[in-house]
TrEMBL record:
Assigned keywords, A-Z: NAD, Oxidoreductase
Entry's transmembrane regions: none
Domain D-isomer specific 2-hydroxyacid dehydrogenase catalytic: 13-302
Species name: Halogeometricum pallidum JCM 14848
Superkingdom of source: Archaea
PROSITE patterns referenced in this protein's UniProt entry, alphabetically: D_2_HYDROXYACID_DH_2 (PS00670)
Pfam families linked: 2-Hacid_dh (PF00389), 2-Hacid_dh_C (PF02826)
Tagged with keyword NAD: yes
Gene Ontology CC: one annotated term: cytosol
Molecular-function GO terms, alphabetical: glyoxylate reductase (NADPH) activity; hydroxypyruvate reductase [NAD(P)H] activity; NAD binding; transcription corepressor activity
Domain D-isomer specific 2-hydroxyacid dehydrogenase NAD-binding: start-end pairs: 96-271
InterPro entries, A to Z: CtBP, D-isomer_2-hydroxyacid_DH, D-isomer_2_OHA_DH_cat_dom, D-isomer_DH_CS, D-isomer_DH_NAD-bd, NAD(P)-bd_dom_sf
Protein name: D-3-phosphoglycerate dehydrogenase
Stated family: Belongs to the D-isomer specific 2-hydroxyacid dehydrogenase family.
Length: 309
């Protein structure tokens, strides 16, 4: 029995795994439920919350809560909990791996060797990482983990996050700046913001047009933060040197222009994954949901869906 099942058994809770691809299906499947445990793909809307009148708690299996109407839940007395420390090392390591893979042109070099070539120049031009500037869009816990990892690479780190204070940056050896300056001065841009009305489509043609032609773009946050058509146009016109994409506008992607470019590294929304992170996630969110069901205060309540932390 895994840690999540153990936690629910301890409070005598009956559990059922359901597949609900729409709010209507979720309402039908969860009728009478006291708790919902959902991933990023399940939309817990105002309608869902209003119709599930026995609901006491929504557990989000992860960090982001853009799929849960937190304000509507609070108005109805429904507690929302998440796992704010989930997969910090995994996602920051994945972002760094994509950044270095793109910078060192590893996919192109790998393909060349597999095709029988032995030519170091096929990946060029390659620019030195040391002495470069890395821009982090969003400075929550994952970005802070990445900033700590970057210390060993002798790079300058710029941060754009309108929801953090100067005090939040203390001890990280980073410089707070505006969005345009970050785009203009960064050799690498890594996205760590949540998906909100504020961030939806923020990386558009203007944003990519502001970045240097040699810049590399990495997104391990949320796909719709990026206008993929604009990204592909920038790659096609040599307006970007490469991109690393773990998340996409549509998952899985269809009719994908991105695959036309040899300087793009893709993974299937896998940055979160390690065996350890999955065990920790199941235990943490299940135990917090059970605290609410027992009438106790949860450890990780979500008070609002705003902010980038």
């Amino acid at each position: 029995m895994d840690a999540g099942a153990t936690a629910f058994a301890a409070v005598g809770a009956e559990t059922e795994v359901v597949k609900a691809e729409s709010p209507e299906e979720l309402v039908a499947a969860a009728d009478g439920a006291n708790a919902l445990l959902v991933d990023a793909g399940t939309q817990v809307t105002e309608r869902v919350l209003s119709e599930l009148d026995s609901l006491k708690v929504v557990g989000r299996s992860g960090i982001g809560v853009d799929n849960v109407d937190v304000d509507a839940a609070r108005e109805r007395g429904v507690t929302v909990v998440n796992v704010p420390d989930y997969c910090l090392d995994e996602v920051s390591s994945h972002a760094l791996g994509m950044l270095l893979s793109c910078a060192r042109r590893l996919p192109a070099l790998d393909r060349s060797v597999r095709e029988g070539e032995w030519d170091w120049s096929v990946g060029g031009p390659i620019r030195r990482v040391r002495g470069s500037t890395v821009g982090l869009v969003g400075f929550g816990k994952i970005a802070r983990s990445l900033a700590a990892k970057l210390r060993g690479f002798d790079v300058d780190v710029l941060v754009y996050d309108p929801h953090v204070s100067e005090g939040d940056l203390a001890g990280f050896s980073v410089t707070r700046t505006g969005f345009d300056r970050l785009l203009t001065e960064s050799d690498f841009v890594s996205v760590h913001a949540p998906l909100t009305d504020e961030t939806h489509g923020m990386f558009d043609a203007d944003a990519f047009g502001t970045m240097p032609d040699h810049a590399i773009f990495v997104n391990t946050a949320r796909g719709p933060i990026v206008d993929e058509g604009a990204l592909c146009d920038a790659l096609a016109s040599d307006g970007l040197a490469g991109a690393g994409l773990d998340v996409r506008e549509s998952e899985p992607p269809t009719d994908d222009r991105v695959f036309e470019f040899d300087n793009v590294v893709c993974s299937p929304h896998a940055a979160f994954y390690s065996e350890e992170s999955r065990r920790e996630l199941s235990r943490s969110v299940s135990e917090d949901v059970c605290r609410v069901l027992r009438g106790e205060k949860p450890r990780n309540p979500v008070e609002t869906g705003d902010g980038w932390g």
